[in-house]
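writing this on my phone so excuse typos. first protein, seq and then structure
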Amino acid sequence: MPDPTKNPDWKIAQAAEEFMKPIKEIAGDLGITDDELLLHGHYVAKVDYKKVLDRLKDKPDGKYVDVTAITPTPLGEGKSTTTMGLVEGMGQRGMNVTAAIRQPSGGPTMNIKGSAAGGGLAQCIPLTPFSLGLTGDINAIMNSHNLAMVALNARMQHERNYTDEQLERLSGMKRLNIDPTNVEMGFIIDYCCQALRNIMIGMGGRADGFTMQSRFGIAVSSEVMAILAVAKDLKDMRERIGKIVVAYDRTGKPITTDDLQVGGAMTAWMVEALNPNLLQSLEGQPVFVHAGPFANIAIGQSSILADRVALKLSDYHITESGFGADIGFEKFWNLKCRYSGLKPNCAVVVATIRALKCHGGAPIPVPGKPMPEEYNGENVGWVEEGCKNLIHHIETVKKAGINPVVCINAFYTDTDNEIAAVRRLAEAAGARVALSRHWEYGGEGALEFADAVKDACEEENDFKFLYDLELPLRDRIDKIAKEVYGADGVDYSDTALAKAKKIEADPELSKLGTCMVKTHLSLSDNPALKGVPEGWRLFVREILTYGGAGFVVPVAGTISLMPGTGSNPAFRRVDVDPESGKVTGLF
């Protein structure tokens, strides 16, 4: 294989793809039958979740492992790479192992962060279909979501243009009296496009729709994406999609997709998307890729269905949660596990020397620019100071009653003294620690890591949720803010406070889960505050209601549901070889 210290990820992936196993072979080795496999070419397939779960309903689940991380730098700290490294390492040990990761959004793929296929010798392949649409799930989500907005705006136009009697005679519709100033949804697109954060639609004459202010979010922030992540079957998905709140009427009553009579058509777009996708690691282990919500603006998990299918088929299943343990793991713990009924055996906290230095006082890396010179030399002091952030995340995992394993995701530039400092401090905090060089050496570099996770899975744990759903919303937010983020308390805008009180007074809304929206770059709601900030309060400026997904969504800080594209985006380096037709430049 090409040397990852001298070759970009896409070149390594292309070299590995010359030796890929056909996906039928991957599926057959895993125990998936031919009638359960829905082929999308030779190397990608969907798996009929219903047939697998029905056939294996009496088979015990395998061990369940979640991969999370410390607070990352803007460059990310390699959770997907580590997930691939772990599955490769366990494969090297002869274990029957699977992984589940999220489908990448076109936004970061064509922007700064890349496609999240992993990196070096720890990747999910084939890279090009993985990165560029896969089997069309995100396209289905965009069509489903945007259809709701089409239905809403058309309904508002027709209610404006016709009397009640005309509406009844022309289409059997009854007036919904939608409030144009109180619309919950916007449109979505799968790119980072700051120009679409605030728009006006319906410009022109009366035949051109209803004129109102609207917006675009990135596709992975859609409630339809969240529903794909948590739905347990098609019936559950249909019910959830029908409960999506699109807007409110002039009395404040919610208007759902079923009120607009569009929930069924939205679900029709999603039928095939409900089946998880099956790919492989660079070393040939099965990898499920399904759902793609970000953790800073959404639930941040691959699908419950992918995990349920994989746990029936393998002895060890590795799933990945987005960003740091304060948001990705917290949602895995209190939302995904609550909805799925699954209990994890172990959680991995990924740490890099680079990120620990950043939290310990080194200059903050800027995406698209070279790493600051300060990261090139040994600085044990910065690493030790940065370990306060790591220890905070270890404590968060321990509050869930789960056994933590710290994976030092090693770069070839890390020094022995820096690695020793992390091991010493993390072990003193009560975590197993494993050094892993999967990026550079693949599964052979992850054997210590694989052994540590296996040992952690054999120990008993005392898994428990942070809060009960009977706890009032503001008390839940307060608990998350104080016990997971380390805040002194929570403050609310007038709008958010009014919504919180309304939700707490509603018997149905008050029982929904709590899905926090917060920056991933800090434990606080201020991305500039590194390490373990002290003396701060969480500011909740807005609260959204995702009635279909089953979430109340408090929005903290200034984070946006539509990221922006930077000045040096990845699309500048993506191209196609005109001779072979192969895509170059993806990472």
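second protein below, same order as before
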Amino acid sequence: MKYIEKLASIRQGMKEKGVDAYIIPSSDPHISEYLPDRFKCIAWTSGFTGSAGTLVITQDFAGLWTDSRYFVQATEQLAGTGFELVKLQVQGKAEYATWLANQLSKGQVVGFDGNLAAVAVAQAVQDELLPLGIQVDGHVDLLSAVWQDRPALPAAPAYLLDVETTGQSTADKLAAIRAKLAAKRVQSHFVSSLDDLAWILNIRGNDVKCNPVVLGFLYLDAEQCTLYIQSGKLDEAAISSLKAAGVSVAPYEEAFTAIRNVATANILLDPKRTCFAIFDAVPDAVTIVEDINPSTQLKAVKNKTELAHTRNAMRKDGVALTKFFKWLEENVASGTLSEMSIADKLQGFRAAQEDFVDISFDTIAGYLEHGALPHYKATEESNATLKASGLLLVDSGGQYRDGTTDITRVVSLGNIKAEEQVDYTLVLKGTIEGSTTVFPKGTRGYQIDAMTRRPLWDMFRNYGHGTGHGVGFFLNVHEGPHVFNPSAIDIPVEEGMITSIEPGLYREGKYGIRIENLVHSKTIEKNYFGEFMDFETLTICYIATDLVDKSLLDAKHIDWLNNYNAWVFEQLSPSLDEAETAWLAEKTKAI
């Protein structure tokens, strides 16, 4: 079925159900960023494959609302589908709700499938439309009837991690969550988000590409805890281990019945991480406490075991990247390399490392103008052939049993231009400024974001994405609750958090530059004036120096770069052969 035909079928379903406008979010019942195939509704409906967007359909208009990361991609993928790109002004804001308010009249109906919309999204739509007399129905599923070959729920087995890997037992994590609930005087809690569930139960799976999670829900109160998961995904040993930790196991689909039968006085639900269908099923007699999942905050602060494992994963990742960039440099002149082929080659180098499980997201290998698309993914149609000239941006990561990595590097394949050097050096300067900043306890992510952007602002340059995101421990590469971006999000940077620092600069149609390391926030000083923190850089991979314009760097930036590259050589050389060691020694020479 062509996209235009799918759109016609949905519109027919809207007529039959009396729906004047239909919203399709990019989500699933767990409000995941990355989706199992069954819930890739936007891709199936419109052809757009980006990880963030919302479709809105009326009888005379169909649009995709998405942010600047995807403007070029969406324009290309929506051509001929019947859908138009609507450019978001503010990333993550439900601007389509305002559009609907201006398009619809009192008495008309807006529908969406509550299994696919977060409570926060549903509330944003309701808050905008209900005061105008526009009805909102969050229980309208128009896709199931027309999506005839819809994939089933993933059936891959799940497994448990031992405490030697995680550093904290499931029983202890449940105790910590119950303590948080008791402090808030909350009697029960329902967890939908997959990475929270994975962290709490020390469980991993393969239900979502690149994210080692398993589909499930978790209910707990002071006395009991139940995991709702598809039958057959856990073996008897795992079920027994969970039972010993105080966790019973029930079929996945029973979660929706269980939430209707909650009998506690109140229940905590995270509005950003719970779907509207679950929220709306809570009995009227039960008070819903809307708050962030306690596990989301606990999970973000890594323990000493997780940090030690992560440092080991970083070394393995650095070895793989060193081998990759050496291979790339030696083979680019052949004219046989492409964006897709080098992504496969890089995955092969990672797969050769001990305890490699998967990549942590689809590799972004952007050559020349493709590097200016922050979330670019090469396709058969766009796949560019590399030449011995121009800039190549590679943003990639790995999932290892002992950690998750995410790194971006830019290399010149030849014929370096002065403009490229200036832009590269300013981005590098931003990475260094963010990585070396000292800040008082309680600092928020938007303050780190500003410190990182300053070298670019000073030269009247900027970038449209955030500066950093949290990273999980052998979990999702994008992890909350903290983030380094311009939004005034009131979440402090805490000791033990792992976050990316990744400023960039993009010249559409020419090239893109982004230099990304992961850092660990730690306390360095306590005195009369308070507690102060800084960052430990975790990522171990050389930063190219042939693109650096030293005249734009202060001595402190040059010292940091030289010391960092020397540290990279020290960390990786014992795991490299003679030729690789010699190559890396040349790449890490002081400037």
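The radius of gyration is 24 Å. thats all i got for now
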